[in-house]
Design a protein that fits this description.
Its EC number is 1.3.3.15. This protein is α/β, with parallel strands linked by helices and about 450 residues long. Helix content is about 40%, strand content about 20%. The chain contains 18 helices and 20 strands. α1 packs parallel to α10, α8 (about 175-185) crosses α9 (about 185-195) and α12 packs antiparallel against α16 (about 400-410).
Length: about 450
């Protein structure tokens, strides 16, 4: 057995690491000279440590074990205690979103009508399973419109860059669909599952999350950065041959029994089209909305808001410009110079696509104006920067169904998909799935 891994983001690197530990032969090809894909950490000349992709990690068992395996445990930094509070824009001002079902009933964030709807959820019967049900339909059906608008909608926009009216429940939150079927009530099911379960730690690494992927890449024996896979061919014996492009020119890599593809669907589809045109068409249909991250730094004295939380999200019904902001300096104070604060504001996603494609200077100006309005900021930013994704997070809407079906069918052809569109968009999802695939392939050795 010999495996070609195409793509050196967190999924491809993790898969290679566990194959290497199991003694399975592999080659990992990454077109970019830099490993890590969406995990990028930048230190600016002004002294800001920025995350371009995920800003934090949920410390799942798989993530914690991988960090320990790589000798990085001493670099773990926990988020500040205030980060447990999450704010949501309501009626033009930021309010703390209740963090648990009991708090929903006692906090003044929701109306009495919404609280009554929450209590009634315990008595609502389970509906018949529906693979086409959207997240919005599910929450509207079980909890009412207010909780959908002011809790679910901003969360989906801020975390998934998504629109709950289009995202499918069984693809985005299959556990909630299962709770309804198993317990009749989602809240009753959560109460039973949650006994003895604590909230996972939110962490980063002291020099940025890119440390994780940089360290993985450095430990791999068969990692080839700056090497793009231009084409995939299949020999008469069923093995795969790759046409490679590197600074040294074109080359061929023969004799792979398996392919592991850790690419976004839009990059994978052209490679598979000659051999598997139907699968390629399904993959090409997956939607990745555009998004920008706008970084804005201010003197602390210029910002009225206490910034005592993780950040603030904007429900679509509030009509804001951005999807919301992470309060980077509140979560990790060491990432900014003393006496300053830093906002990471997200513009775009499935609900804000028009704003995402505006010119950089227009976005920065609009973000500054909105921050000034909601946070009581006086004066201009001390510094601003931007990172733009023409395609950001894959959407688990109706178009992902065909892609997942295609990926499952390709496994019979010894092609395994380990990118974030396959098993979940979070880093813990990617690491867990890559490790599972490594275990499956190792068992065939």
């Amino acid at each position: 057995m010999k495996i070609a891994i195409i793509g050196g983001g967190i999924s491809g690197l993790t898969l290679a690491w566990y194959l290497q530990k199991a003694g399975v032969a592999y080659d990992l090809f990454e077109a970019d000279p830099r490993a890590g894909g969406n995990l990028q950490s930048w230190t600016t000349p002004e002294g800001y440590l920025l995350e371009v992709g995920p800003n934090s990690l949920q410390l799942s068992p798989e993530i914690e074990e991988l960090i320990a395996d790589l000798g990085l445990t001493d670099q773990i930094q926990d988020a500040a205690a205030v980060s447990q509070q999450r704010y949501v824009l309501r009626d033009g001002r930021y309010q703390v979103l209740p963090g648990s079902p009991p708090a929903l009933l006692t906090n003044g964030f929701f109306s009495l009508k919404a609280k009554w709807q929450l209590l009634k959820e315990f008595r609502r019967p389970a509906a018949a399973p529906d693979a086409n049900e959207t997240v919005a339909h599910f929450f509207r059906r079980r909890f009412g419109s207010e909780i959908l608008d002011y809790a679910v909608n901003p969360f989906m926009a801020g975390i998934y860059a998504g629109d709950p009216e289009r995202l499918l429940l069984h693809k985005t939150f299959p556990q909630l669909a299962a709770l309804e079927q198993e317990h009749g009530s989602v809240l009753r099911g959560l109460a039973k599952k949650g006994k003895g379960a604590g909230r996972r730690r939110i962490v980063t690494l002291s020099k940025g999350l890119q440390t994780l992927t940089d360290t993985l890449a450095a430990r791999l024996t068969n990692y080839q950065p700056g090497t793009e896979v231009k084409a995939i061919f299949r020999a008469t014996d069923g093995t795969y041959q790759l046409e490679l492009a590197s600074p040294q020119g074109l080359a061929a890599a023969p004799g792979y029994t398996h392919l592991a593809v850790a690419l976004p669907t839009y990059a994978l589809a052209p490679l598979l089209e000659p051999l598997f045109p139907q699968a390629a068409a399904a993959l090409a249909a997956v939607h990745y909305p555009p998004m920008s991250a706008v970084y804005s730094a201010y003197d602390r004295a210029a910002v009225t808001h206490p910034l005592n939380g993780f950040g603030a999200l904007h429900p679509k019904v509030e009509g804001a410009y951005a999807a919301g902001s992470i309060w980077t300096s509140a979560i990790y104070p060491q990432r900014v110079p003393a006496g300053q604060v830093l906002f990471t504001t997200f513009v775009g996603g499935a609900q804000y696509e028009a704003a995402a494609t505006e010119p950089e200077e227009a976005q920065k100006a609009a973000v500054h104006a909105e921050l000034s309005k909601f946070y009581g900021i006086t004066g201009a930013p001390r510094w601003q920067g931007r990172y733009f994704w023409p395609r950001s997070i894959p959407q688990f809407d109706e178009r992902i169904v065909g892609a997942h079906a295609a990926a499952a069918a390709l496994e019979a052809e010894n092609i395994w998909s380990v990118a974030n569109w396959r098993a979940g968009v979070g880093v813990p999802d990617c690491v867990r799935h890559a490790r599972q695939v490594a275990s499956t392939l190792s068992a065939e050795k």
